[in-house]
C-alpha cells in the first residue's frame, strides 16, 4: 500500500512538473498571458502573497510604450480580479457552514456592507495591502458578486497602473543614474 501511494505521488509530481514546464515555455513569449495567469494565482490564495508584481515590474522595465504599460497593468488587474473571485467564493462558502448563532453576529456587518460595500472593496483593492481580511467577510455577509467584481476590477487595475507607471519612472531615473538592474529590481519589489 505504501509503495502504491509513493508511486502515485511520484507520478503526480512528475506530471505536475512536466505540465508546469510546458506552461512556462508556452507563456514565456507572451507576457500578457503570463501576467494574467500569475495575477490570478497570486490573488486566489487566501492570506498569502505571491509576488506577481515582480514579473509585472520586469516587463515594465522592458516596455517603453505607455500604451503597452497600460495594457500590462490592465491585464494584471483583470487577472487579480478573477483571482479575487476565488476569495469571494471562499467567503460565501464559509457563510453556509457557520452555526446559526454566529451568523447573527454578521448581520450588523452585512447591513453596513450593503450601504458602503463598494467603497470598502474599492479602498482595500486599490492599495497593495493584504485585502483578504476585508474581502472574505464582505463575501460572507452576502455582498453582491457583480458589485464586488466591478469594485475589485477598478481597484486592482489602479494598483497595477500605479506600480507600472511609478515602476517605469523609477527605472528611468535609476538607468540615468547608472544603477544596475540587479539593484533596481529588489528596490522596486520593496517599494511595491
Briefly summarize what is shown.
The chain has 192 residues and is mostly helical. The chain has eight helices and no strands.
Q: What percent of the residues sit in helical stretches (DSSP H or I)? A: over 70%
Mean of pLDDT: 83
Q: Give the strand tally.
A: 0
Bin the strand percentage.
Answer: under 5%
**In terms of per-residue confidence, which ranges show pLDDT below 50 for 5 or more consecutive residues?**
none
Q: Tell me the Rg in angstroms.
A: 20 Å
Contiguous helical run count:
8
Commentary on this structure:
- It is built from eight helices and no strands.
- With 192 residues, it is mostly helical.
- The chain has two domains: 1-38; 52-191, no CATH class.
- The longest helix has 33 residues, at 145-177.
- The radius of gyration is 20 Å and the shape is globular.
- The mean pLDDT is 83.
Task: Supply the key terms.
192 residues, mainly alpha, 2 domains, 8 helices
Please give the structural blueprint.
Blueprint: H1 2-27, H2 31-44, H3 52-62, H4 66-97, H5 100-125, H6 132-140, H7 145-177, H8 181-191
Helix pairs in contact: 2-3, 2-4, 3-7, 4-6, 4-7, 5-6, 5-7
Amino acid at each position: 500500500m505504501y509503495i502504491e501511494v509513493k508511486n502515485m505521488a511520484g507520478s503526480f509530481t512528475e506530471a505536475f512538473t512536466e505540465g508546469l514546464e510546458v506552461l512556462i515555455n508556452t507563456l514565456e513569449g507572451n507576457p500578457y498571458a503570463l501576467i494574467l495567469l500569475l495575477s490570478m494565482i497570486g490573488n486566489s490564495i487566501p492570506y498569502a502573497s505571491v509576488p506577481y508584481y515582480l514579473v509585472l515590474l520586469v516587463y515594465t522595465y522592458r516596455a517603453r510604450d505607455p500604451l503597452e504599460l497600460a495594457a500590462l497593468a490592465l491585464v494584471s488587474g483583470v487577472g487579480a480580479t478573477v483571482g479575487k473571485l476565488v476569495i469571494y467564493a471562499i467567503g460565501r462558502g464559509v457563510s453556509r457552514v457557520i452555526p446559526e448563532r454566529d451568523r447573527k453576529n454578521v448581520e450588523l456587518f452585512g447591513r453596513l456592507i450593503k450601504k458602503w460595500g463598494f467603497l470598502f472593496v474599492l479602498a482595500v483593492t486599490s492599495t497593495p495591502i493584504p485585502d483578504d481580511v476585508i474581502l472574505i467577510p464582505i463575501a460572507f455577509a452576502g455582498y453582491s458578486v457583480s458589485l464586488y467584481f466591478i469594485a475589485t476590477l477598478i481597484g486592482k487595475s489602479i494598483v497595477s497602473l500605479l506600480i507600472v507607471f511609478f515602476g517605469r519612472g523609477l527605472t528611468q531615473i535609476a538607468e540615468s543614474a547608472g544603477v544596475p538592474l540587479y539593484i533596481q529590481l529588489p528596490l522596486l519589489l520593496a517599494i511595491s
